[in-house]
Design goal:
Blueprint (H helix, E strand, L loop, with lengths): L1 E7 L5 E4 L3 H11 L2 H9 L2 E3 L2 E3 L3 E2 L3 E7 L4 E13 L3 H14 L1 E4 L2 E11 L7 E6 L5 E6 L5 E6 L6 H17 L9 E4 L4 E7 L2 E7 L1 E5 L2 H10 L12 E3 L10
Antiparallel strand pairs: 1-7, 1-9, 2-7, 3-4, 5-7, 6-7, 8-9, 10-16, 10-17, 11-12, 13-16, 14-15
Helix pairs in contact: 4-5
Length: 253
């Protein structure tokens, strides 16, 4: 399920750090009832020693101005935010929280909630066209000869990308349904011009790809990708997708 929120900034706009994912994540947890927020923040759904929150969210989309020297981004007018999850209880609680409160607090600033729409995307075949609403992250942790760890990030078309994406979706399926996922690999291909992003989340550098994509593979895994996010770090605001029907991928700077 995808929740589409339209937010309205004050006359002076909404000024945020360029790397604002942690503020959005915190705002979403703040909207949820405390016990549900605690479950998703501290626990989530576990399989094979891994925990998955099974939700994702988009970049903020709207008129904006970036000030690189001050590391600030300012949004003006109406701003769109998309949150996606296969979990009905999460989506219902979030929707009620937004509508009942009527505003979203991002850092020290409040923005008004003016509209909400719900979209159910149903995957019925073994291939879909999507666009990214936040960058897709795929990575491996490797070791240098001296034993030090480092992180290598990948983008669509590189040999390690599809196996990482497939393994991640299979684990999400297991965490959500408690059973073995269908066999078969998910193949991700670029379907137009894209961007490679270097972003920061709470002091850590994260790299991800945004742009139109074509996904092929078992429909059940494609559905997980659409509902819970493609790739890693979804609950930090990465890998949010929507079925393509025109428009452009969100650009997160």
């Amino acid at each position: 399920m995808h929740l589409y929120f339209t937010l309205r900034t004050a006359e002076e706009g909404l000024a945020l750090p360029i790397h604002y994912n942690h503020l959005l994540q915190g705002a979403l947890y703040g909207i949820l009832p405390p016990e549900l927020a605690s479950f998703f923040h501290e626990q989530g759904y576990e399989t094979g020693g891994r925990r998955f929150k099974l939700f994702t969210f988009s970049c903020l989309m709207g008129e904006r101005k970036i000030e690189q020297e001050n590391k600030k981004i300012t949004f003006r007018g109406e701003v769109r935010l998309v949150v996606a999850s296969p979990l009905e209880k999460f989506c219902t609680a979030l929707a009620w929280g937004f509508l009942n409160r009527g505003f979203l607090r991002l850092g020290e600033t409040e923005v008004e909630v003016v509209k909400m729409a719900v979209q159910h995307y149903r995957v019925t075949g073994d291939e879909i066209a999507v666009r990214t609403l936040s960058p897709v992250v795929a990575y491996s942790t490797l070791y240098r000869p001296d034993g030090r760890k480092y992180t290598c990030y990948f983008q669509p078309g590189e040999p390690d990308f599809d196996p990482l994406i497939t393994a991640n979706l299979r684990k999400k399926y297991q965490a959500l349904y408690g059973c073995e996922p269908p066999s078969g690999e998910v193949v991700v291909k670029k379907a137009g011009r894209g961007n490679w992003h270097v972003l920061e989340y709470k002091g850590f550098i994260i790299k991800g790809y945004s742009g139109p994509l074509r996904l092929a593979g078992p429909p059940e895994l494609l559905q997980i990708a659409v509902d819970a996010g493609l790739g890693s770090k979804n609950s930090q605001g990465f890998g949010c997708l929507e079925i393509r029907g025109g428009g452009r991928s969100a650009d997160c700077g």
